Amino acid sequence: MVMGQTIDRTDERPGGPLAVSTAGLTKSFGNRTVVDDVALAIPSGSVCGFVGPNGAGKTTTIRMLLGLVRPTSGSGTILGGNLDEPASYLHKVGALIESPAFYPQLSGRDNLKALARLGRLPLTAVDPVLERSGLLARAGDKYRSYSLGMKQRLGIAAAMLAGPELLILDEPTNGLDPAGIVEMRGLIRSFAADGITVLISSHLISEIEQICDYVVMIRAGRLVHQGGVGELRATQQPDFLIAAEHDADRDVLIKLLQAAGCTVTPRPAEASVLVETPGLGAADLNRLAASSGIILRQLNERTRSLELAFFALTGTASADVPTGQEMGAIK
Amino acid sequence: MMWAAFTSEWTKLRRPTLFLATFLGLAAAASLFVVLLFSQASANGGIVTLHQLAKPNGLVIGVARASMLLGVVAFGIAASQVASEYSLGTLRQLLVRQPRRAVLLAGKMLGTITFLVLALCFAAVIALIVAVVAAQARHVPTSAWFTGTGLGDLFRELGDLTLGVIGYSVLGMALGQFVRSAVFAVIVGFAWLIAVENIIVRIVPSTQQWLPGASIMAVASGGVEGVSYGHGLILGAVYVVVAIAAAMTVFLRTDVTA
To answer: Do residues A61 and A22 both lie within one domain?
Structure first.
């Protein structure tokens, strides 16, 4: 695959109703196109990971969905409302955009009251969301006294205030410690259990892998893949960790595998080899070794992670957006 | 819907630090002017005579002199309230809950203006009490203040000050909308109102009647030398309408990336 090649798989539309659907969504700032012809199709009720390196255009896309940034071109439907009229759907949407932003001198509760009044929501909705986000005990304290984790939880509480059908969380685990990340994961799972469609943006693919059942991948402003996490994994060939019974057979085994079209990476420390196959299964590899009289003491199939799938789809080994020079080379 | 934006803005404005600082600060400033006026007044001359203070409009002389200060404070608070929504990043939260931007901005403007007008009224009441005490201390008779004429002058002056505060507030909020930084908005606004306009007028005196700060000052003070009350009222209203239209246009068209 050519480095940086983009793959548009928007034809793989899921069958069920869509919470978010866009066509040709594009945003340019001056001459710089930040989001380019993105066609999202996020199923209702899914927990969708929105994955891409830093600077890939995730936040700009989210801001367009929330009516904060006007698309340069393109159209869309969110919860049945038109993307051009955010007021038609935002009353059913909750959002945490980048870092949580509240008035530092107000308490957590008063911050939510200000938002509830603005959205014409009952003030009785405030305490239940504070309780759900684990902040009720500190709700009367000033926001500026909150830890980062508490601020993030208040952001989640604010997003839940309207009883949303769609929850958009932009990098919700940013800055959280491991315990906070686990807590956040639990919260997100509980929202999904309530039937809320959750769109989570993150540059941490491993994080998304643990929570989401659907994934949208974006790179340099362009969609590279969207679909179920399981389907994506299924498209990825597993690799194998193989070791011959006798070390003396290792070189012969490597030559055999290479002759069969495999990519072999020796791992001397474990006296084994890592094998990427062109479609061979465990039985094929075992048969191949046996045909030369080699007995295998280890044959482990390893499922490839979403992270590897992302790198395979984008043709890069780095999570960072390419530099200007690299971008030039791709063109 | 605008009522929702208005009450939401008030939830923010009534926080103790801002509420007390504004209400007590304005009251202290107005009272200080009254005390200085009475303490410096003499029988024969100076800034004002004791005889002038005993007249029906004697009560409002001190408050009217404080109009510039009240205006500048109103301008600064209004500018910082709008600009800080950008610098804190809270605007994106607000726009998710109220995507109709014109409604949001109108509600916020109305909230800030009522807050400042109430602060002005509170300052006026305190300054009035201080004036009565100061008059007793300087043996200035106050019976004329509470006649029909005196109270009429008082309420007219308070009305003019209210218009002035509204004008300064709108200009402040418009500037805050353009520069999107509370500190920068306050610095630019203060520099313009206190220094730049004065320098321009000193170099080209005829410009006084066309400058926004001077026009609104003329309204707040019931007319000043060089700018009549009526001229200030008309031109000030034009500046206010233009400022609201410009702020609204910018707000409606701007991408919120903060």
So the answer is: yes
